[in-house]
Design a protein that fits this description.
By secondary structure, the chain is mostly helical. Helix content is 57%, strand content 3%. Among the domains are: 20-50, no CATH class; 107-213, Cytochrome p450-Terp, domain 2, CATH 1.10.230.10. The chain contains 12 helices and 3 strands; from the N terminus they run E-E-E-H-H-H-H-H-H-H-H-H-H-H-H. Strands 1-2-3 form a 3-stranded antiparallel sheet.
């Protein structure tokens, strides 16, 4: 017996011989020269016309996530570009693979906790339960702490300051992050900074960006930053220096009991 499934559809883009539409909007007549990249990006991702507050918050989030120096994503891009300079897009894509649950893309992990706090009947109690859970696991709470920025991550507090100044935002995700911050500090017995991706989670949540989509904003932003690293790599190469530094910094140590990789008895 053959099962007929529904034919998939798309509402993102269509074209004719003489026109091209993004959704119901004519690309040439209504978007080109009329809208910014951020406006069209949000229209496509969120499926609605962005408000002025959406544009302001998204722009600042994209700026914050674009760059953080020679991090794993930038190093990966530079090394791949050194190996294959004819493949710029390959170098950028290599760096984007580092956007994950440990670096850059960590806002998703924090956003899931904020979703829990917003939905809970007692936000402070829910926040404390989360903080105690991570304390018991002996792991950092996603969105909190930073190995470079201490005692505060200035990016996070500027982001939250900007969000609080926006009357068109509900503020529920920002308040949830503040509740979580109080709980994290109480359980740790000392102040733990909110980091940039923690603040980004709250701000994107205020725009009603789904949690499972948030990392996409990091991908979009970091791609631009990685192109900048390639431009600098073309002008002042560092890939070979990074390679040589690692080769000399990590010594070879012979495996015990015989040749490297040989675990058999002598």
């Amino acid at each position: 017996m053959t099962t007929h499934s529904k034919t998939p559809t798309t509402s993102l883009c269509t074209h004719t011989l003489t026109s091209l539409h993004y959704g119901n909007t004519n690309l040439v007549e209504d978007l080109m020269g009329q809208k910014t990249f951020t406006e069209v990006m949000l229209m496509q991702i969120l499926g609605r016309t962005p408000r002025p507050v959406d544009l302001r918050i998204t722009d600042v989030v994209l700026i914050v996530l674009m760059e953080h120096g020679l991090t794993p994503s930038a190093i990966a891009t530079r090394l791949i570009y050194m190996s294959a300079p004819e493949n710029l897009q390959g170098a950028v894509s290599a760096g984007l693979l580092a956007v994950g649950s440990s670096f850059v893309g960590t806002m998703e992990n924090c956003s899931r906790m904020l979703d829990r706090i917003v939905a809970a009947p007692d936000a402070d109690a829910e926040a404390l339960e989360i903080a105690h859970h991570y304390k018991a696991q002996k792991s950092l709470v996603p969105g909190f702490g930073h190995h470079l920025h201490k005692p505060v991550d200035p990016r996070a507090y500027k982001l939250l300051e900007l969000a609080r100044a926006e009357p068109d935002l509900k503020g529920d995700r920002v308040r949830a992050l503040e509740a979580l911050s109080r709980a994290v500090d109480a359980v740790a017995g000392k102040p733990i900074t909110i980091n940039a991706t923690g603040a980004v989670a709250a701000l994107l949540g205020e725009l009603e960006v789904p949690t499972n989509v948030m990392r996409g904003f990091a991908v979009i932003s970091r791609a631009a930053g990685l192109v900048s690293h390639i431009v600098e790599e073309q002008r002042d190469p560092s890939g070979r220096f990074i390679w040589d530094t690692i080769e000399h910094a990590i010594p070879f140590v012979a495996a015990k009991g015989g040749k490297s990789g040989d675990s058999s008895p002598a």
